[in-house]
Amino acid sequence: MQVYEAPIRDMLFNINELHEDDGFGNLEGFEDFDEDVTVAILEEANKLCRDVLLPINWPGDQEGCRIENGVVRTPKGFQEAYKQFCEGGWAGLGVSQEWGGQGAPHSLGKMVEEMTCSANLSFGLYPGLTGGAMVALEAYGSDELKNFYMPKMASGEWSGTMCLTEPHCGTDLGMLRTKAEPQDDGSYLVTGNKIFISAGDHDLTDNIVHLVLARLPDAPPGVKGISLFLVPKYLPKDDGSLGNHNNAGPTAIEHKMGLKASATCQMSFEDSKGWLIGKPHRGLEAMFAMMNTERVAVGIQGLGVGEIAYQSAVYYAKDRLQGRSLSGVKNPDGPADPIIVHPDIRRMLMTMRAYNEGSRAVSAWVSRALDAEHASPEPEARERAKDFVALMTPVVKALFTDLGHESAHLAVQVYGGHGYIQETGVEQFARDARIAQIYEGTNGIQALDLVGRKLPDRMGKNLRSFFHPVSQFIEDHGSDEKIGKMIAGLQQAFGALQMSTGHIAQKGMKDPEEAAAAATDYLRLLGFVAMGYCFAKAAKIAHAKLEEGTQEKDFYEAKIITARYFFDRLLPPVMAQMMAITSGKSSMMDMPAEAF
Amino acid sequence: MQVYEAPIRDMLFNINELHEDDGFGNLEGFEDFDEDVTVAILEEANKLCRDVLLPINWPGDQEGCRIENGVVRTPKGFQEAYKQFCEGGWAGLGVSQEWGGQGAPHSLGKMVEEMTCSANLSFGLYPGLTGGAMVALEAYGSDELKNFYMPKMASGEWSGTMCLTEPHCGTDLGMLRTKAEPQDDGSYLVTGNKIFISAGDHDLTDNIVHLVLARLPDAPPGVKGISLFLVPKYLPKDDGSLGNHNNAGPTAIEHKMGLKASATCQMSFEDSKGWLIGKPHRGLEAMFAMMNTERVAVGIQGLGVGEIAYQSAVYYAKDRLQGRSLSGVKNPDGPADPIIVHPDIRRMLMTMRAYNEGSRAVSAWVSRALDAEHASPEPEARERAKDFVALMTPVVKALFTDLGHESAHLAVQVYGGHGYIQETGVEQFARDARIAQIYEGTNGIQALDLVGRKLPDRMGKNLRSFFHPVSQFIEDHGSDEKIGKMIAGLQQAFGALQMSTGHIAQKGMKDPEEAAAAATDYLRLLGFVAMGYCFAKAAKIAHAKLEEGTQEKDFYEAKIITARYFFDRLLPPVMAQMMAITSGKSSMMDMPAEAF
Q1: B569 and A588: CB-CB below 8 Å?
Q2: What pLDDT sits at residue A26?
Q3: Fewer CB in 10 Å around end: N or C, chain A?
Q4: SS3 (DSSP) at A480
Q5: Which stretches make up the Acyl-CoA dehydrogenase/oxidase C-terminal domain (chains A, B) (predicted)?
Q6: Rounded distance, CA B377 to CA B388, Å?
Q7: Residue B531, in any domain of the structure
Q8: How far apart, in whole angstroms, are the C-alpha atoms of residue A104 and residue A54?
Q9: Is residue A543 assigned to a domain?
Q10: CB-based contact A587 B579, cutoff 8 Å
Q11: What pLDDT shows up at residue A21?
């Protein structure tokens, strides 16, 4: 059973309570989004996700997309759902009002994204890619392009894509071959083949705006010779109506492990007319503006799937009767107790819950920083926010998607044999979540980005935006009666992280393979320290609320138990990855390639 | 690419070198299986698996099984492959010569099973279930039943199943409802519905011998009222030819996440004629004879998938060109280096390799004990072997299947985007491996079996069969120049295991939920100590061989590097699970069910 109700109470806790003291100040320009509006938006989004997107999630997986006469057809119900999505203004939720969007803060927008990803990850990719394309277009496009395309994309009338990968190059974009020939009218003719293009073609919108990486004739080799082009599926006329097909279309769709209702296309461009975005040979820069947004978005995908997996597992654990509680019969009128009484089922549910709440807390923190980067009145706070976003982007992407995938599999395990059967819909979560660890840069690439770029950048300045609040918090609360034990655990993990950082800084300086060998373990350790910090803070707030005699006793008590579970059960093994990190590269690199 | 060549050299290392001093003595009755015969059998099995079973693995996944007019059809090529399998005598490899089998030791048979599971897990289930059914039949069946059925099953002419699960009861078999009415001729009429029956119907054999759990009219409630019956699909005549259909057949097949070429059936029995196996109401005992064998076999499935996942990932890591080595260009004539040069790819390959070699070593140890249990000339050694098998059966089942699934996902990750596409065949490993963590008792149930039954049994006697050799080895080699560092790591992990055992013994005595809350972490810790012990022993042997000036320098050097990787990178986080174990049940159990 795929079961979902947006965790609005926890979302509000993260938006309003957890990060009040994050040092980013009061943000400007979001005055319209007060608490009432925030609640109203979350509740409306929940309705859309629960009542419109969720019901077509499993049928969409079973039906999949298909290609007919060169046109991709989405599964039944997707067109109607997309129409409702656009009519509700969701396509432009985070887009500037200048382009007809709502201009909502990331702090709110990411919560809505989480809901969409929970309810229907495949569906979410269609507007998701459009959102990413708008980021690059807004930041690097000419005014003419922006004025023409942005409003159509913000309304959802037209969608967008990112066309990077080619059969022989994914991570290593320096090898890409697609070409762009300049024309006299200032446009370009783009020719080449792309693969793995999400939403590359579909029947949800009349037109699709492809952002395509290609080489100009005079391009230097490697990544320094890549430019970015806007290539529409249909060439629009000046009045916005559609003209000729632009020879930019799908040649096939991929048969994938999951995410089957999202069309992943092989694309062909043949003298397709396009326009340069940004400067020649600087396409990667523009693409990275989009990629960074997308990476946080992909992290949220992991969280979204983790949340619905958790809720669906809880539903079953309360419903399925099997065995009796070891501490005495709990359901005397039934033939057996619900399996939620069993410790090992609890272990799985609590693990998923802690992953989700921990990820949501870190995500809210990063989202605040995404907002503060532009909307904080203090230049120093903006700078700190920017550093923090840079540091945490790969962590959010890799950690959340790893945990989301793990949660999906825990849900399958809670369902037992029934989880392996397609009809219950739970194994779909595991198949869908799996891609998020791969696309927008594999999680290994994220870890390399963290240790290879984000750590050394400006002598570790990014890291200070994270280390400072954590060490301050530990210092301030070490002798706190209520959360002292958690602080001790956090301090130990933070110590392991500092030691690991020292190891990477010292060894990696001389030998970059040493840093790379530590990367994946280090990213996880850093991510768990970030979650631990958020859990300790949350527990502190919860204790204070309980002392005050809050009406929401259950919510805050549950928050404390989940935090305790995290410190008792989940943090210690990750902390010990410090030993793996400091063991160095030799056992990883000594094996000759031919011995494998 | 699904790539496979049986790891025969490592198998021989495990059969002949690693466990020589295991204290089980020289086993009797396997004189025919000298080294030449062993090598010949492994090589023949490799040919069958690589050349016959592997080529139909991916097509079988794509085509799946189907049900037509009440009969299940296996995918193209399965019938022909099964014929070859039987003609080669593989169906009876481990079956006593009394019934026409080969009588090979488990030490050899499990290696062949690993190969089958690597090459084609779905295929392997058909003869695998027959093997399990033969174990129960041989141990508990009447001479009449055995004489009639065993030869037909040992040759593979007829296959077998285990029919346990019903829609409302899987783990909790006490609730089962299928009924058996005694008849005047000593037979029974069995009526009821079963689900999740592997190989419940298919077109590989003329007849199928179902072992069915059902209740007699006078059965007491719960698990003490369950009996086991042999119910053939067709009622055989006295001469062995087939008579009437026995109303024992499939009503549907399940649509599963993976293992699609294995028919998982919903079965209906309607006044189907059957014969009692063992005593009335003692069916669970007979079923457990079969279950225990099957649990080790399922563990081997995890290892098998892990091995082909590893090999397929290595193939791609050497083939795929992307990026340049951080320590200098390795493939100057190509546009990029093969990705095996990158540390994070190494991390994934070495992890898979260590899991596989570690699992194979433990599996060989347990297989030796399975043989020694019956074939050791010394009663004490037989007793010790039996204790060891009892202890390790849940560990083999749960740990190997967890690691196999993890390896399959690491392989997908090595393939990146191409791993998510069905055509490369790698995501199939992940989908196929997933079931092994669930069936034959979920891995959570295995952990409960370990801490709830196997640990306390006879005041911890089972555990001594494992603790004794490990502590002896640590004592003997603590100051070994070559492996001293590994011994230090092993000692630390062993200490964590002892402390965890003490926690469970002490707390679990008063409160069984405390033991249950520790179970899954404890199983993993115990399993990793077992692998660590095997790796340290293997490294010791390898160092000695290298000192002697062996011809196989590469093999032994690789063994040492893999062992180092295990101790450096994989053992520390698992060791730290001791902290999770000793934190107790409270953070797991305190949350009220309604707060989830």
Answers
A1: yes
A2: 87
A3: N
A4: coil
A5: 282-450
A6: 17
A7: yes
A8: 24
A9: yes
A10: no
A11: 86
